[in-house]
Amino acid sequence: xxxxxxxxxxxxxxxxxxxxxxxxxxxxxxxxxxxxxxxxxxxxxxxxxxxxxxxxxxxxxxxxxxxxxxxxxxxxxxxxxxxxxxxxxxxxxxxxxxxxxxxxxxxxxxxxxxxxxxxxxxxxxxxxxxxxxxxxxxxxxxxxxxxxxxxxxxxxxxxxxxxxxxxx
Length: 168
Known about the structure:
mainly alpha; Four Helix Bundle (Hemerythrin (Met), subunit A); 0% strand; elongated
């Protein structure tokens, strides 16, 4: 069933995932504005594992930067804020898209995980878990639409992990 068929009787914003973009914007804004809780910054444990915290932050931030750069570049002609694929899109399964199906979502999850480990923030951990749930849902909606447009997507999805190479 194509977009033109689904839109009859419904507002356009209900069909292309505009509400998902709004929720994503709110999650990212909340993550940035959220205070670190509980604050372990003065504790001995926090100081003792400083090298590990910095290493994880750099590693995850680097992964986020690589995923967002390569992912954006690979689909630059078809990139839209909406999860609904544009009419003239082509299925990209090479490059970073041969490693994970949703590198742009992965980049946000890597960045939030890096900050969460670095700051040792319970509040950010809870919001990162909410982000994983949200992006899993958003990706499943997007994948359903991509499968309608590209039947070969189902085979691609069986071969390539969703967010984390070799894991998930």
